[in-house]
């Protein structure tokens, strides 16, 4: 028995908010887990602090599955991003502890390496097609083999996913959400040009990806998938919203462009139909938002039966602890597809000590025992929580709210 003696939540904002759970055992071994839910951080912090931690003290840290079931079934109120991120944080921390006790890098406990390293994709963004492709060329020169292209839409002032200033990405930068205006017609007209130019400038040997951020209807998504077919995308992400899995039947009927979805899923029940009916090609549910390693294993193994591969979310609002854990998972599972990689800032990495590496388009998890990411609590305390939101989206014509 490896008794859990203490646990605490650490909220820190080195450029953006992160929620971290640290679990300590009687033997002095500790583990850390990520509990960050962008824009709703304190809800998960309270869920852990007020409702989970009191129930963890005294339990056996080795009983990962049992603790998962205790938190999932025992709460009566199941699923949802807050619950599942809290469970994920506990789960990540416990796997970290188990691997440290075993003296092995986490992927060894998950079955060992199925591959030599982990293919990652990066982001290339810009206000215009030229800016985006300039950024993409830079990333290609850095060794990236897969690049996500996002560009501003001509005629729209600002769009989520397109940087406002010089920074690499649009951050959660407002204490009350700002608003963008959206036009599907303008977007649908401009996007194929980005990929036509992209293929011309970048060549055929680089994987190209794109994220639609749930902004279309199924029939619009079908049209877009068809229009992009000549450019052979690696995937088209989040075309429509996830509330109705059957939406994908319509899209699938019309296009062979590979489809990815799942970064906002938190349970296997959010993607069961999508996977079982082979309506998607990549599942993006992540360790931090979908119940941790324990539940993600269930999703990945289920997906494998239906030729669906993984492509985990890896934006910078997921802390380096999630990135570290994801890389171990990616190494071990058979049906790995690709991993998103947005490098964290130096400031962030002064708090979260990472040991993973990037070389020539591929990443490798830490070889130290555990998942290999630790938090410097003293440094973390220097950056107090700051309320921050991503922008919202309204239709240019009429002003109704729409997906961002
Ligand atoms: C991605 C995502 C991000 C999310 C962000 C939300 O594919 O990386 O869509 O851009 O919007 O992580 O918190
Ligand atoms: Mg996305």
Report on the structure:
By secondary structure, the protein is an alpha/beta fold. It folds into two domains: 4-105, Enolase-like, domain 1, CATH 3.30.390; 109-368, Alpha-Beta Barrel (TIM Barrel). 36% of the residues lie in helices and 20% in strands. The chain is built from 13 helices and 18 strands. The strands form four sheets. Strands 4-5-7-8-9-10-11-12 form an eight-stranded parallel barrel, surrounded by four helices. A hairpin with a 5-residue loop joins β17 and β18 (401-402). α3 (81-102) crosses α10 (292-304) and α5 runs parallel beside α6 (184-202). The longest helix is centred in the N-terminal third of the chain and has 22 residues, at 81-102. The chain is globular and about 60 Å long. The model has no long low-confidence stretch (mean pLDDT 96). Bound molecules: D-gluconic acid and magnesium ion. Magnesium ion binds next to loops.
SSE layout:
Elements: E1 4-12, E2 18-25, E3 30-34, H1 41-56, H2 64-73, H3 81-102, H4 106-109, E4 118-126, H5 129-141, E5 146-151, E6 179-182, H6 184-202, E7 207-211, H7 218-228, E8 235-237, H8 247-254, E9 259-261, H9 272-276, E10 282-283, H10 292-304, E11 309-312, H11 320-332, E12 336-340, H12 346-351, E13 352-353, E14 357-359, E15 362-364, E16 374-375, H13 377-380, E17 392-395, E18 401-402
Parallel strand pairs: 4-5, 4-12, 5-7, 6-17, 7-8, 8-9, 9-10, 10-11, 11-12
Antiparallel strand pairs: 1-2, 2-3, 4-15, 13-16, 14-15, 17-18
This protein binds D-gluconic acid (GCO) and magnesium ion.
The site of magnesium ion has 4 residues, from loops.
